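User: Reviewer 2 asked us to show a designed sequence for the structure in our supplementary figure. I'm pasting the structure tokens here. Could you produce the per-position amino acids so we can include them in the response letter?
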């Protein structure tokens, strides 16, 4: 079964993409989260902003390294041998 290698490869391929984290990192500053009732509101907002940027940097770099090192091995496990590929039925319309 190739379910586990396929699932792991799909997970690894999403790690280098950090667009959503980049878009959401500035929300606490723009929406003024923690603006009422917090004595250290500026520090909390800045922490969230910096944590989002740190997450972007670590996930994109680490994800690309893992995908480059482990990705080809996972794809090799899912390769169908040529002899088995010939036995597969053609897809309708081909």
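Assistant: Here is a per-position design you can include in the supplement:
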């Amino acid at each position: 079964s190739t379910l586990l290698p396929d699932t792991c490869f799909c997970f690894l391929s999403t790690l280098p993409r950090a667009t959503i984290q980049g878009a959401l990192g500035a929300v606490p500053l723009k929406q003024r989260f923690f603006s009422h009732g917090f004595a250290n509101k500026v520090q909390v907002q800045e922490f969230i902003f910096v944590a989002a940027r740190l997450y972007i940097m670590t996930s994109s770099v680490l994800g690309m390294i893992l995908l480059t090192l482990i990705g080809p091995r996972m794809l090799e496990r899912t390769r169908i041998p040529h002899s088995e590929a010939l036995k597969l039925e053609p897809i309708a319309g081909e």
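For the response letter, you might also mention the following. The mean pLDDT is 75. DSSP finds five helices and no strands in the chain.
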